[in-house]
Amino acid sequence: MRLAGVGDVSLAAEPTQAPARGGAASGDFGAQLKSALADLENSAVSADATTEGLVTGEVDIHEAMVAMEKADVALRVAGTVRTKIIDAYQQLLQAGGG
């Protein structure tokens, strides 16, 4: 069974290469972070657009619910990643300061 509007999950789960040590790694992280934030923003904009389409009758409820759920999941993942980054930073500070 294939749901309309849901992309191929295997594409999102492709393994990535570990960045090389040195200055390039921080640049790659910054680029990946910027890309992830742009994707988060795009999912929120898409959810808003489909919600407006639902109100005007241009979009069916299924499509609107899928877009809103995708935005919700993306926001939850972003919050979890943020928490993990903060925890890792705090551990680095404790390891370096002690």
Outline of the structure:
This protein is an all-alpha fold and 98 residues long.
Terminus-to-terminus distance = 55 Å
With helices defined by DSSP (H or I, 4 residues minimum), what is the helix count?
3
Number of strands: 0
Q: Which structural class matches the secondary elements?
A: mainly alpha
Strand content: under 5%
| Quaternary organization | single chain
Radius of gyration: 18 Å
Shape, per Cα inertia axes: elongated
Mean pLDDT: 80
Helix amount, in percent? over 70%
Largest sheet: none
Give me the strand/helix succession. HHH
Q: Low-confidence stretches at least 5 residues in length (pLDDT < 50)? A: 1-15
What does this structure look like?
The protein is an all-alpha fold and 98 residues long. The protein has a domain of 65 residues. The protein is 77% helix and 0% strand. The N terminus is likely disordered.
Protein topology:
Layout: H1 9-12, H2 23-56, H3 61-97
Properties at a glance:
98 residues; mainly alpha; 3 helices; disordered N terminus
